[in-house]
């Protein structure tokens, strides 16, 4: 049996999900047997899910509460709470777990907070650790004590035009880099931010400023070492490259699709094939899935295919064994789309499943 956990919006986020859902397909029958099997763990709007790399533990961003919760699998289709929920920031919308399983990054859309939480040996969440030596220096010498998540360090790199309201910081996603640093997106300030983990949480390393009004949302690390970033407002994929000085810079940009309409289409999730040859972007508005080829050294990206997502408002998608599973937030459905094994292009919708306000899909162990 192939199993998936399903994140969703509940009543506190104008949805009808009762918690983390369970989706499964019968062995040997493929996507046509996919069905929503019910609630695996009651929770309030677990809009994003992340898995521990070694343990059977799932973390949920409780977006309405502004907290993170941990769950341990207790059966084929059941998750049970693992320790207390940890408050992070307003409208926490994304989680990324470190490859070593020792920490977690929470990105909060509401207040721009980027927070690092520790993870125990059993996977349980731990509050951000404050450097006790730094705290002692602060008390004795009056030095500033660093904040665990450095939540207020972001500032708008662009001046506010006369007559307009100042923009707000909106942290939206994170990815761990091979050198141990972390990259996060700030959709509100058009930034990709690079962080260094410290004993106190996070320290800002440097920022990459994207063009004003592009709205960087999600990002993926390519096998070539490049970062690909999809923008919600301008409908583009920006490619970042790291220089010999360890500074990340903009290398290239391309439209998500040749027919994307700015102001009408709003890209959401960005994913890649296992070999990195293809990127997939969900596009809310036109409700499509765009496929882009990655060429050359990994910095060249070009759109080559566009397919019906089979859902309304494709918030997230997951590529699994030649099938794209797409969660439709507004349609309350999950579609299964065939992917051409030769070209990587998305094709026809094979199957559709009814699910309560689905926002995220996670392959279960």
TrEMBL record:
Residues 143-166 are annotated as: Disordered. It comes from the Bacteria. Belongs to the cycloisomerase 2 family. This is Beta-propeller fold lactonase family protein.
